[in-house]
Amino acid sequence: MTLKVWHKLALILVLAIGPIGVLGYLAVSYELDQLRTEQRRLAGLQYVKSLRGLIEQLQKHRTAYGAIALAESQSKDKLPPDIEAFKVRLPIIEGDIDTAIEGVDGLDEEYGARLQTTEKWQEIKEAWEDLRHLRTGDLNVSQYRSLLTELLGLVAQTADRSRLIFVRQEDRYYLNDTLAFKLLDQIEALSQAQTVATSSALRKSLTPADRALLLSLGGPIRMLRDGVDRNAQGVNLANETVGESIEGAVVANRIACDDFLLYIDVALLKPERVDAAPAGVLATAQRPIDTAFQLWDEEFEAAESLTEQAVGRARRYLNIALWSIAVGLLVGGGLVFLIARGMTRQVYAITETFDEVEQGNYTARARVRSGDELGRMARSLNRMLDNTVGLIQSREEKEEIQAAVLKLLDEVHGAAAGDLTREAEVGADLTGPIAESFNFMIRQQRQVISRVQSTTGQVGDSAAEIHSLTEQLAQSSDAQADEIGQATQAIDDMANSIQRVSDNAAVSAGVAQQALANARKGKLAVEKTTQGMTHIREQVRETARRIRRLGDGAQDVALVATLVNDVAEWSSVLSLNASLQASLAGEGGQRYAVIAEVAERLAGRSADASRKLSALTSIQQETTAVVNALEETTREVVDNSLVATQAGQSLVEIETVATRLAELIQNIATAAKEQAVDSDAVSRFMKDVSDVTQKTADGTRYAAVSASTLSRLAEQLRDSVSAFRLPPEESSVVSPSVMEFGGDPSHDATMMTSDGFAWSGADDERPTAMDEEPTHEGSDEDLVGSGVRK
What b/e readout covers 60-87, taking b as 16+ CB neighbours within 10 angstroms? Predict the structure, then answer.
């Protein structure tokens, strides 16, 4: 490879920091996603706040418009003063509605595309324009209800799109749930009750439809109020500071709702005639609405503050990740630059020294710029040059040396061609030590080549095994990634199922509340029926007593008829006797004739009266039959009253069961929501695990490729050293010390040179031919004559 040293170091750094860069990229991507999610939640909160203002003004407009329409329909001459105040306030309320719509328009231009609310918001504006141009006589309460229902649906859609309730912090979850769902639904139910109550107070009567509507609204108001209280308790458990800040408003909301429901029951539902003043009803109904809006504002401030803190925290984490990556890259680059600069400066100094020596400047010395191995190399080079200067010889010596060198080169030519079986001849001339050193080098090379051949074989086998294992591991990682993907899909399906269960539980809670309201209405109806039947029973008993007295009077009439009949008979006898006396007395009995005539008339009238009184005896019989029928009716009324009482007791039991059922369904809905949040977090975690497993599989494949590459390199290295020929004993036997220490010649090993020198230790500590005094036979003069210095 022709790369420079610092290029190689830079390449090593890039390979080393590659995984760090990938992890840094993943960390930055995650923190950036968290930041965007929190920003979307903050945008959703601001959008919901603008819709809250519009809902408040629309509810005021519905109340005022409904009161004006009802008053004008009942009184064409002069409206009450409070209705005139409504007519004065109506344009002001419409102006406030236009201002609220402008605020929502601004937020929709900024966040509508992200929250996907523009289309529905345009429909709501068109519905408002249609509603505001209606005449007072054309008022339709259902249009207001439909418009407010659409607004509440837009609030729910905004909360869903901005993931307001899909948050891990419990305090923020309960606050957002109260803001987006429970409080606004409670306010809408209170507003509907306010409209009905005010209309009833203006009419001074409560229609059956209004009564039923007020009774049906009581249950949802209580349920939503309890939901607000439970969410406040959850906030207090998760964040005591925030819980204490909203505790007063929560208590005020509960008290205002209870007072309003009690007022509706006392002033409108129980009395037979509504005598409450419309202004008083309106003010009493407005108090819980205003309290609920105040609670909404306080909880919004807390939720907005927590969301802004989350946005700042996510932005801070993102900056930390970016700065960490930047600092890591700068530090790594700086270290590589410093290391490369230190190495290259020393290498350049050594290279320049070699260039000067090559040109014949033996006085050149390398500058020592570092204390590492390169610095030691520079110092060794300088010492070697100092020794070389003292060994510069004459031309004759050079020629002799040249001849000896040529001879040595001829002898070692075979070794240069790769034949390590040959050794140089060791003589008494100057090349003797060189030959000895060369032979020593040949022996060392034999051992090195032998170790290389053995090691390359082992490396090749190990690389093949690693390649096989990594292939199996890659296949296992792929299978694991597929299984984790299937598990992730299953968890997603489970999360969707839990979400559907949560929705069904919420619908079931509403149905249970409606059933509870119907059971309560049935209970009241049965109680009233029982009271009415009791009253009928008392009236029937009183009528029976009177008819019985009439029957007794009819018996007296029968007695009188008998007496009158007797009087008629005696009068007839008296008339007959008087007639006989008159006929016997002659003319002197004329007075008896008058008496007889009078008695006869009296007898006739008595007979007529007797016949008439006899006709009255049938009245006695009919009276007796009526008394018996009334007594039978009384018994049936008593029996039906008992049945109605039993039905009332059954309805009471049904009401208790329905109340418990509503509470259980509400708990199920709450648990289902919590499970939906947890399942969504588990789904995201499984996706992260799937990504990590996929990356592990990719790394395993890369390791398999690297093992294959290592195997090929081992084969190439084996082919490279196969050109060298070794003696049979060297090619097949490897020194135990070499095998033990992995072929590293730096470990302790004792070797013998051809001259009998023994050395132990690393290569840089063994004696060399330049440091040793060769052993030759002869005198010092022979040594001098041969050109060898002692």
Answer: bbbbbbbbbbbbeeeeeeebbebbeebb
As a dihedral over the C-alpha atoms of residue 211, residue 214, residue 216, residue 217, rounded to 10 degrees, the angle is 170
Gap between the Cα atoms of 186 and 221, Å rounded: 6
If you average pLDDT over residues 717-725, what whole number do you get? 67
CA distance 310 to 44: 14
CA 7 to CA 267: how far, in whole Å?
92
Crossing angle of helices 208-238 and 170-177, in 10° steps, is: 160
User: CA-to-CA distance for 299 and 295, rounded, in angstroms?
Assistant: 6
Where does the pLDDT of residue 756 fall: very low under 50, low under 70, confident under 90, or very high at 90 and above? very low
Q: Name the CA dihedral angle for 693, 699, 702, 706, rounded to a multiple of 10 degrees.
A: -140
Per-residue confidence at 754, pLDDT binned at 50, 70, 90?
Answer: very low
Which tokens go with 715?
């084969």
Contact 292, 299 (CB under 8 A): no
pLDDT in tens, 103-125: 999 988 988 888 888 999 999 99
Residue with token string 């020592």: 368
Cβ proximity of 275 and 203 under 8 Å: no
- Sequence-separated (6 or more) residues with CB below 8 Å from residue 398: none
pLDDT confidence bin for 517, thresholds 50/70/90 = confident
Give the CA diameter of the chain: 234
Q: Are 411 and 768 a contacting pair, CB within 8 Å?
A: no
Name the DSSP letter for residue 171. H
* Contact criterion met (CB below 8 Å) for 124 and 154: yes
pLDDT exceeds cutoff 80 at 184? yes
Position of tokens 């399942």?
679
> Do the beta carbons of residue 106 and residue 47 sit within 8 Å?
no
Please check whether residue 58 is in contact with residue 144, taking contact to mean a CB–CB distance below 8 angstroms: yes
405: number of Cβ within 10 Å:
14
CA 55 to chain centre: 27
CA distance 112 to 147: 20
